[in-house]
Design brief:
By secondary structure, the chain is mainly α. α8 packs across α9. It is globular, with a radius of gyration of 19 Å.
Length: 301
């Protein structure tokens, strides 16, 4: 286990505050959950999120291969030991000094964004899950060395981290069907649409009927299956990281229920978990961990 150099985090407090601003503006669910981590882990997660947001913005905001190329160039330089004089990279330098994070998931994230630049609707659920690994499962691999810092991350836990990221990405897609359609993207797999008897014409007309609900639920049920491994494996994480991780899982999975409760109106509006519901979900996460700790204690006896 690496010893966390808290002084280095304090030296870069302004840079980490900049990263915190990025996550606070862009992801209330992630911010709510990971603000529960201890200070250095919390700051590290914010920095990783800021990198992922920079990659995403290169496509969604700048719509430019050049912007993504610049980010990738900065990333290559960073791993070669040349740190760009910007808040993101200065913060990431401290993160990599303190946690044993792999390089490859960062390049996988860049690859995922390149796929959005040359976007094609996925043909199958497997295609969607492959894409979701690059843009979100890779994030799970980035985060795990922070959430499981006491030792090398086991392969089984890496798989659960990837599944969690993929589940969250599918959840994003199901929340943002209409918004993505406005941007010329349909992430719903062609095969799933055919099986539900829901056409591209129906989608363009934003029809919410039994076929749409069937299509939406087929993907939601897959996401719910992918949430389960980390829910079961969270006790393998560092004790100080379990609550934040399970809270993020519950908050994100709660988005699916918000869409359901809103009558599946994701073609015309964006569902958000209200504060009161978020508090209930966090309380459920805490109760689950308390039950798991009680069982673990009983087993130990």
């Amino acid at each position: 286990m690496m010893t966390v150099q808290t002084e280095r985090f304090k030296e870069r407090a302004e840079d980490f505050a900049w990263c915190e601003g990025v996550i606070k503006r862009n992801s209330k669910s992630f911010y709510r959950a990971f603000s529960l981590l201890p200070a250095c882990k919390r700051a590290s997660v914010y920095a990783l999120y800021a990198f992922c947001r920079a990659a995403d913005d290169s496509v969604d905001r700048d719509k430019s291969a050049e912007a993504l190329d610049r980010l990738e160039g900065d990333l290559v330089d960073f791993f070669a030991g040349s740190v760009s004089d910007q808040p993101l990279w200065r913060a990431l330098e401290v993160v990599f000094e303190n946690f044993a994070i792999d390089e490859q998931p960062f390049f996988d994230m860049i690859e995922g964004q390149r796929r959005d630049l040359s976007f094609q609707q996925p043909k199958t659920l497997a295609d969607l899950e492959e894409y979701s690994y690059y843009v979100a499962g890779s994030v799970g691999l980035m985060l795990l060395p922070i959430l499981h810092a006491r030792a090398e991350v086991p392969e089984e836990l890496k798989r659960s981290g990837i599944d969690l990221g993929v589940a969250m990405q599918i959840t994003n897609i199901l929340r943002d069907v209409g918004e993505d359609l406005d941007n010329g993207r349909v992430y719903l797999p062609l095969e799933s649409m055919r099986e539900a008897r829901y056409s591209r014409r129906d989608l363009k007309r934003r029809i919410v009927d039994e076929s749409f609900v069937s299509l939406w639920e087929s993907l939601a049920e897959r996401a719910e299956v992918l949430y389960l491994p980390m829910q079961l494996d969270a006790m393998q994480l560092d004790e100080d990281s379990r609550f934040a991780t399970i809270s993020s899982l519950f908050l994100y999975r709660g988005i699916l229920d918000q869409v359901r409760d809103g009558g599946y109106q994701c073609l015309t509006s964006r569902s958000v978990v209200p504060k009161e519901q978020a508090r209930r979900l966090v309380a459920e996460a805490e109760a689950l961990l308390s039950a798991d700790r009680t069982l673990a204690f009983a087993d130990a006896r």
